[in-house]
What we know:
By secondary structure, this protein is α/β, with parallel strands linked by helices. It has two domains: about 5-105 and about 245-290, Leucine Dehydrogenase, chain A, domain 1 (Rossmann fold, 3-Layer(aba) Sandwich); about 110-245, NAD(P)-binding Rossmann-like Domain (Rossmann fold). The chain has ten helices and twelve strands. The strands form two sheets. It has a six-stranded mixed β-sheet, with helices on both faces. A six-stranded parallel β-sheet has the order 9-8-7-10-11-12, with helices on both faces. A hairpin with a 2-residue loop joins strand 5 (about 95) and strand 6 (about 100-105). Helix 1 packs across helix 10 (about 265-290). GO terms for molecular function: NADP binding; shikimate 3-dehydrogenase (NADP+) activity.
Amino acid sequence: MTGITAAVLGSPIAHSLSPVLHTAGYRALGIAEASSYGRFEVTEDQLAAFLAEHPEHTGFSLTMPLKTELVGLAADRSWHSDETAAQTGAANTLIRYPDGQRIANTDVIGIVEAIAECQPAATDTAAILGSGATAASAVAALHRLGVAALDLYARRPERARGAADFASRLGMQAAIHPLADYQPGQCPLTVSTLPAGALSPESFSWPDSVDAATVLLDVAYAAGGYSVGADIAAHGGQAIAGERMLIHQAVEQQLLFAAAAGFDAPPQTWRPRLAAAMTEALRTAHTAKGDRR
């Protein structure tokens, strides 16, 4: 049986849970023995050479700081880009099909699904914390969810201009603010795209409580340290763990890898199966480490 050979690339990469998720997906698909999923420390200036040196891989998952570098590389090499990657200027997936290489952004669907499964109250306003590549994906995701007005908060506000301009092109209103001006609970829906360790309990001025309908998705998932999502929950709101986004974007990646490898895995049938398998694998991994999640 021919399997899938894939890996996650980025720097730092030791904390990545992608091997746990994709290996669980392989088991669900019944191809675990013939497949592999690795993890490699790769920086921006190393990406092109690394890809050239690993032609046997079906595809790659890419994380910080490679998402914008991959888009530029794809343009230079005339690789096909899916609509979401082209819109956001960020891609987290490289797939090698028999007729050529393609890039995709599955972060957007990951954010959409993570928020949707929480079933938040309908809102046309939202906030985004951060200004990196994932901020553009958050803009696209919130647009799909019906948000019409955005407040963008960044440590260096000028760096949020790209995300704000992208929101404007989508027909959304967008305002930029310093990160310190964010007021927890003021906005009904927030997506924090900041990396783990970027915030502390003193980063914001917290009210005694927030409305129970207040929802915050924190895409950072590294164990330990301060969690703005946990703080929202402690003040009465709803926190969506970044691992939910991670699972849903990984499901889409695995479906793309499976299609490239020639497997019959209809998305409508396999999305819930893969999500369930990956969720259980993460639960097992956390239990083994003694994490309370």
